[in-house]
Structure formats: structure tokens, C-alpha cells
Design a protein that fits this description.
heterodimer, A: 316 residues, mainly alpha, 2 strands, 70% helix, B: 443 residues, ABC transporter involved in vitamin B12 uptake, BtuC, globular
């Protein structure tokens, strides 16, 4: 039991930190432009595929640097030549633009790399077990993922709160006109943040790619969860996004390891569950099986009982 | 959006509604009568089996896209989970049909879509009470979450949703009336056409009621709608439930047409498709989603025959519409309405000529892009099948340099020439409108 809790906690924190790598960029972009970037998970997928492709040629470590830079560049171009033009048509058009972009990126990835999983492997230099907890060997690569995510989190926090660039970004979020008056190029700040945000998503993709499956549906699987994170955390709240990332990471990881169903619980207290009927599955589904829908249940509950999200201050 | 324009245009129609004189009734009913005649004779024009299948799909998509437009176009609610009501309507219809067959109930097939409508309404009321508290981004996210919730549940609750293979039925086993067994495709066509017409009339009538106007008010300015004495949340909730009703009817028609419903019908793909259809057609008017539904269905069937990467073209078309024509195809057509009203036929002809001039380079650009996409696809995914491909019936070798150079020249040259035509078209446009203004008819 202790073993399960330890390993699940580690995995949960790891998953949560990966979510936060993406949610942080998404939240910053949302705070500035007032638009949720539907294609954010697509940049994560691009990161994984770029990492895979560049890794084939140059090896893992150069790819670890080059892929996020490339994806961030693409993100900045998308902001400059796409989103900025659509902005005048209003927020719905912006959201729809990123929706279409997600669609197109998925199709392009399928067109180039096919629908099957890419053979993206853990690099040999990290392919050993870091430590043995109880009887489970914990892979070093997962520790690497965790440390990378924490390091980026620390750097991001330091840049945003301790540097001049961070001050300008923070000021642009709330008082963009005033920042422009002071002589800063606010559209360029937006482009920079969009580029860095998509680059962070790509970092998550490069390091998550070998551990998870690098496939053209990975954006579609993760994207909705990412939205759950930013809505549950509170739209526009970076601290809320951090909290919600960890929460959802832990909840999903723990749920997968619990094999308990309503029928078991009813049986435990001496009640026979109903047999048959079109909804009989409801009684026999285990918690592990409903793990994929737990985030969405959480989303609906949060929106009913605390519409601003955990740490959000404004209602959108 | 052309709200001001349509608002002005609608005043006579509303007066006519409140005092229905004989002439007004004829004027109101004439377009619908013409549409009914068109629906009736379409199978005589498109006689082949595949054309009939496509007409059926179009009819279903028209109802679905119009129901979506009740949210996005009329009430300003951007939903990413509208397929929930379509799919659940379909599932309940299939289960209802199987129950009817099993218990030998005397229920004929034509009334079965009502089951879909009621289930769509029911789920619209349930989910709408949660999600319509707020509009905007929050609503969009909730609809996405609810959509994922139902889509994921559909794979878990195998008893109701039938797992991977879905639930099937047999539409010919229900009570036969007037010798109709709904085995032949043509009978199903008339069933779908009838329900499509009925739904279109109902949804159009709804936009003409005070409730329809309140939906528009809530879309434009919820605060002011509240001042007038209407709760925006209630208006959104009712609109959402009614959209669920018509989506359920569309889902029921689809279930009857395919005799099979599976979990992909409630999924994100279906929700995305209806959004694409409504938006490409144009959400600012009633006719827009109809155009979009017909076009998207046609493209889906036709493009998927020609190329494997048809969804990429679809997505690019959608992004192009969002960037350059946010009011859709209907919006593009409406832009020319003042010229038509001013009877400025001469300047319209000149404008059309400049369009033709711009069309040439645009087609060259398009050909270049298609060449790049198809050759990339054949080099990467289909590499095992060899590099020889044929694009527009021209045989090419995707591995050699010449086709790539040609594609690059076509793309960049086409774009450069296309860019040159923009000022020409713009000048013709301004001239045409200046002349129309000069006659004092166009405002």
C-alpha cells in the first residue's frame, strides 16, 4: 500500500508538472489576449514529433533544445500573421481560428508522420533505473522529466517576478495601454509570450514523447484536459493553474490504481446491486475505468459550485 | 454581422405576421412552398443511388447545422459539444425502434424522430441548466467538458452505447402504413426531406418570434436585455434546450438513415463538423448554415473519394473563412445585396470581371498548394507505395526535383499575381458602391 502511494504520488506530481508546463503558457496567453488557445496541445504534439525527428538526426540532447525553439518560432509566426489579423473580428473568431489551427496541425502531423505511433525512445544516456522504491524500479527518465519541469517552473517564476522583462509582461496583462504609452511595443510582447508559451508546450512534448505515446491523436487526448486545468484553476490565474495541474495529475494517477466499483461498495455494506437493465454497467464500472472522465466531472462540479475556479478572481 | 440591416428588413415581415392579410400569407408561404417542391423533385433530377445517399446526408446536416446556429448565430453561444444532443437523440431513437420491434407496438417509422427530438430536449434541459449560466469563453469550455464527459462515458457504459460497434436496428420492421416499409432509399429520402422541411419552418418561425429577438438581444448586449426585463440566463437556457431538441431530431434521422449509431456520433469530431458547416456557410443569417451543410456534406463525400488528406483541405478552408470571411459564404453574398437593390447591373458586371481576373492567379496558387500537400503526403506516409503519383490526372514522380520546383513556382507565383489583383478588385468594389450611392438607392 505504501509502495502504491509513493509511486502514484511521484507519477502524479510528474504528470501534474507536465500539465503545468503547458497550462502556464496557456494561462499567460489567455490573460493577455483574452482567448483560450485551442491549439496549445497541438504545439505540445509538434514538440514531440520535432523532438523525435531532430533526435533521429542530431540525437536527443540537441533536439531537446532545437525542437522547442523551432515550435516557439512557429507559435510566434502564428500570432503575428494569424491571430493578430483575426483579432479585429472578435473573440469568437479568435477562438475559432485556434480551433481550426488545431484541426490543421493534427492533419499535417498525420500527413507527414502517419497515424501510427512514432518510434520515439528514451535516450540511452537516461535509460536506467534511478532508484528502487520498495520493489519498483523507478526509471531515471521520469526523474529527468520531473526535474526539467521543476527547473522550468522555477526559471519562469523568477523571470516573471524578478526581472524587468517579467515586470513589463505582467504590466501588459493588466494595463496594456499604459505600457504602450511608456514606449514598449506591446504587440511584440504578446508575440514573445505566445512564442515562449508554445515553446514551453513543446518542451513538455519533447520530454513526454518517449514516456507516453508519440502519435497524431496525442493533442486531441490532452487538449481537453488542459482546458479543464485552466478553468478549474481559475481562468488567468497562474497559481491556480499550478494547483489544478497538480490536483488533476494526482487524482488521475491515483484513480487508475483503484479497482473498486459501486457494486463492490454495495456488496461491502451488504446490499445486492441491481442486475440487468441498460445501465447495469453503471454498477460494475471501476474507479480505474472512469479515470478518464474524472477531470470533466471535476470541471462540471467546479463550474456549478465555484464558477471562478479555485483561485480565479473574475467571472468570464 | 448584418444585424442592423436584417433588423430593418424584418420590420415588414413582423407587421405582416401580426396582421395576416391574404397577400402577406402568400408572400410568407411562397419560399417554403417552393422549397417543398424542390425537395419533392430533387430525386427526379439526381437519380443515382449515391446522389440519393448524399441528399439524405445533406438533409440531416441541414437540420443539425441550423440547430447549431440557434446557439452560435442567434444567441451567441459558441458550443464545442453540440453532438451530445445529436448523438444521444440517435441512441434513444435506435433503442426506441428496437423496443417497438421487440414489443410489436403499433408505431410507424415517420413519428420516430420525435423520440430523438424529445431526448435532445431532455438532455438540453439537463446540461443546459448547468452550462448556460454564463456565455462567452466559460460556456465554450463547459460545452467542451460536457462533450468529453459524454463521449468518454459512451465508451464505458457499453450496455447503453453498445461499445465500439454501436447499436443497430432495422427500420423496415416497424408498423407499415400506406404500404411504406422504408426499405428503399427513396422512401427514407422523403421521410428525411419531410422532417427537414418541418424543422426548417419551425426554426425559421422561431427566429421571427419575440423570443427569437430576445436571443439576438442577449447575444448583442446581455446587460441591456436584462434592463428590458428579460433574464439573459433564462433566454440562453431556453435557446439551448430548443437547439438540443432539433439536434436530437437530426440525430434521430441519422439513426434511421444508417440503422446504426455508435459512440463517434456523440464525439468531438461530430461537434467540430457541425461547427465547421455552420461557420463556413455563415452564422449571420438563416440561409448560411443551410449553404454550409450542403457544401460541407458535398465536400466530405467528394473530397474523400479523391484524396486521403481531405480533412486538411477542410481545415484550411475553415481557417481561410475565419481569417478573411468571418460571416461565411452567406456573408460574402450579402455584401453584394446593396448593389443588387440599387440595380447597378453595369458596375456589378465590371466587379464580376475583376473577380474573374483575380480567380486565375488564385487557382494557380491553389494548384501549387495542392501539389505540395499531395507530394508531401505521398513521400512520407505512402512511401511504401512508390513515389509515382497523379495529381489532376498528371503523372508525376514525387521524389524528383522538377515537380517540387513547379509546385514552388505555382504557389509563390500564384500568390504574387493574386496579391497584384487585390487593388484592382478593391478599386472596382469602391467604384461600384460609389455609383450605387450616386443613384441614391443603396444606403
Amino acid at each position: 500500500m505504501l509502495e502504491l502511494v509513493t509511486i502514484s504520488t511521484l507519477n502524479g506530481v510528474l504528470y501534474g508538472m507536465l500539465l503545468f508546463l503547458m497550462a502556464s503558457g496557456l494561462t499567460l496567453i489567455f490573460s493577455m489576449m483574452g482567448v483560450l488557445n485551442f491549439a496549445h496541445a497541438s504545439f505540445y504534439m509538434l514538440g514531440a514529433f520535432f523532438g523525435f525527428q531532430i533526435g533521429q538526426i542530431l540525437g536527443f540532447w540537441p533536439a531537446f533544445i532545437v525542437a522547442p525553439v523551432l515550435v516557439g518560432g512557429i507559435g510566434a509566426l502564428v500570432e503575428r500573421y494569424g491571430l493578430r489579423n483575426v483579432h479585429r473580428h472578435g473573440p469568437v473568431a479568435e477562438l475559432l481560428f485556434t480551433f481550426g489551427l488545431a484541426f490543421v496541425i493534427e492533419e499535417i502531423v498525420q500527413m507527414i508522420w502517419g497515424k501510427g505511433p512514432a518510434d520515439y525512445r528514451v535516450p540511452a544516456s537516461l535509460d536506467f533505473s534511478a532508484f528502487t522504491a520498495f520493489s519498483t524500479n523507478y526509471p531515471a527518465y521520469k526523474m529527468f522529466e520531473l526535474l526539467t519541469a521543476i527547473a522550468i517552473f522555477a526559471v519562469l517564476l523568477a523571470v516573471l517576478t524578478r526581472t524587468r522583462v517579467g515586470l513589463i509582461i505582467q504590466a501588459s496583462l493588466t494595463h496594456s495601454h499604459m505600457v504602450a504609452m511608456l514606449g514598449h511595443n506591446v504587440p511584440r510582447v504578446f508575440m514573445l509570450v505566445f512564442g515562449v508559451g508554445t515553446g514551453l508546450a513543446a518542451v513538455a512534448g519533447v520530454i513526454a514523447g518517449p514516456a507516453l505515446v508519440t502519435q497524431s491523436n496525442m493533442a486531441g487526448l490532452l487538449g481537453p484536459i488542459l482546458f479543464v486545468v485552466v478553468v478549474v484553476g481559475g481562468l488567468g490565474s497562474l497559481a491556480g493553474a499550478f494547483l489544478a495541474s497538480l490536483l488533476i495529475g494526482l487524482v488521475q494517477t491515483f484513480a487508475v490504481s483503484i479497482n473498486l466499483s459501486v457494486a463492490d461498495v454495495l456488496g461491502g455494506i451488504g446490499v445486492a446491486p441491481p442486475v440487468g437493465g441498460p445501465l447495469f454497467d453503471l454498477w460494475n464500472v471501476t474507479v480505474a475505468q472512469i479515470a478518464p472522465i474524472i477531470p470533466y466531472l471535476l470541471l462540471v462540479l467546479i463550474l456549478i459550485f465555484r464558477p471562478t475556479g479555485l483561485l480565479g478572481t473574475r467571472e468570464h | 454581422m448584418s444585424d442592423v440591416g436584417s433588423g430593418v428588413a424584418n420590420v415588414p415581415a413582423r407587421v405582416a405576421l401580426s396582421q395576416p392579410g391574404a397577400a402577406a400569407v402568400v408572400r410568407l408561404a411562397a419560399p417554403w412552398f417552393a422549397l417543398a417542391v424542390a425537395f419533392a423533385i430533387l430525386p427526379a433530377i439526381f437519380t443515382s443511388g449515391s446522389a440519393l445517399t448524399m441528399l439524405n446526408l445533406m438533409g440531416i446536416m441541414i437540420v443539425f447545422a441550423l440547430s447549431y446556429n440557434m446557439l452560435l448565430g442567434e444567441t451567441g453561444l459558441l458550443s464545442f459539444g453540440h453532438a451530445v444532443y445529436y448523438g444521444l437523440g440517435g441512441f434513444l431513437v435506435v433503442h426506441a425502434m428496437n423496443t417497438v420491434i421487440h414489443d410489436r407496438l403499433s408505431v410507424p417509422l415517420p413519428v420516430i424522430p420525435l423520440v430523438g427530438g424529445f431526448s435532445g430536449l431532455l438532455f438540453g434541459i439537463i446540461f443546459g441548466s448547468v452550462s448556460t449560466r454564463r456565455a462567452g469563453t466559460a460556456f465554450a469550455m463547459i460545452s467542451l467538458g460536457l462533450g468529453e464527459l459524454v463521449a468518454s462515458s459512451s465508451l464505458i457504459l457499453r450496455g447503453f452505447f453498445g461499445g465500439e460497434e454501436g447499436v443497430s436496428t432495422n427500420r423496415t420492421k416497424l408498423l407499415h402504413m400506406f404500404g411504406l416499409n422504408f426499405g428503399p432509399q427513396i422512401q427514407v429520402y422523403y421521410l428525411i426531406a419531410g422532417w427537414c422541411l418541418l424543422s426548417m419552418v419551425a426554426m425559421y418561425a422561431l427566429t421571427r418570434t419575440p423570443f427569437g429577438r430576445m436571443c439576438n438581444a442577449v447575444r448583442e448586449n446581455p446587460e441591456r436585455a436584462q434592463f428590458v426585463g428579460y433574464n439573459p440566463r433564462t433566454v440562453r437556457f431556453i435557446a439551448f434546450s430548443l437547439a438540443g431538441l432539433f439536434a436530437g431530431i437530426a440525430g434521430g434521422l441519422a439513426a434511421i438513415n444508417f440503422e446504426l449509431v455508435n459512440s463517434s456520433e456523440v464525439g468531438a469530431g461530430q461537434s467540430g463538423l457541425v461547427l465547421l458547416a455552420a461557420y463556413i456557410g455563415g452564422i449571420g443569417s438563416f440561409i448560411g448554415p443551410v449553404i454550409g451543410a450542403v457544401l460541407v456534406t458535398w465536400l466530405e463525400v467528394m473530397l474523400s473519394d479523391v484524396t486521403d488528406v481531405w480533412q486538411l483541405y477542410f481545415g484550411l478552408l475553415f481557417i481561410g473563412m475565419v481569417m478573411f470571411a468571418p460571416n461565411g459564404i452567406a456573408g460574402l453574398m450579402m455584401m453584394h445585396a446593396p448593389l443588387w437593390q440599387a440595380r447597378a447591373y453595369g458596375s456589378m458586371l465590371r466587379l464580376a470581371l475583376t473577380y474573374l481576373v483575380a480567380l486565375g492567379p488564385a487557382l494557380v496558387l491553389l494548384a501549387g498548394l495542392i501539389l505540395v500537400i499531395e507530394m508531401t503526403y505521398h513521400l512520407s506516409v505512402k512511401a511504401s507505395e512508390g513515389t509515382a503519383i497523379s495529381v489532376f490526372h498528371v503523372a508525376l514522380d514525387a521524389a524528383s526535383v522538377i515537380p517540387w520546383v513547379a509546385a514552388a513556382i505555382l504557389t509563390f507565383g500564384g500568390f504574387w499575381l493574386f496579391r497584384l489583383t487585390w487593388p484592382v478588385v478593391g478599386a472596382a468594389w469602391h467604384e461600384a458602391f460609389a455609383q450605387a450611392h450616386g443613384t441614391g438607392i443603396a444606403k
